[in-house]
């Protein structure tokens, strides 16, 4: 029943809209315990060894085991596209790079992994039966993606060209910002995306993160889109908590 509800509530996302997040973890069971308590998520078998994270039956994320111990422990933000092959060609022509060419994920959709010209990693998702978030922009769900980069002007040009309608089109309401690395992180930190999850009370959520073995990477600060803190889970995956 939860699966049916999740499928029913999924939106159709335009190209360039953040439509999904997934975590690659050494220990998915430990991830289920951490995020289940932090966000109230429940879990359901998904594809391969991955699990859907559900909030009141709606799909909000996925947790997957790392297939190679050398891979980073990380949350990845994916952007929607109706044609992953075509977007991949545009992306490489604009100076980005493909880490993995578009590949099918069963009947769920087509995925690819890429970097922008600065090296920040993100995903592409062409939907099949899985369109993306069943719920977003609420406590316990994805609410924002922030790209920390060394060159915001270049990032704005790259993503503005790649995802123009989602960022700047008529009626656009993007959940995607760009900021200088040094605004939050040390200058030596490589460019990267940070997935933001909503919380009702940031201070309470930070207490829960610490109690569960996570740590605070960047203490609370005020951004244009809300009050934010960047944290890591108990396996080292970074993400942000956002109170609006």
UniProtKB/TrEMBL annotation:
Classification via Pfam families: Glyoxalase
Entry-linked CDD domains: SgaA_N_like
Domain annotation VOC: ranges: 17-127
Entry-linked PANTHER family: CONSERVED PROTEIN (PTHR33993:SF10), GLYOXALASE-RELATED (PTHR33993)
Designated name of the protein: VOC family protein
Species whose genome carries this gene: Streptomyces eurythermus
Species classification: Bacteria, Bacillati, Actinomycetota, Actinomycetes, Kitasatosporales
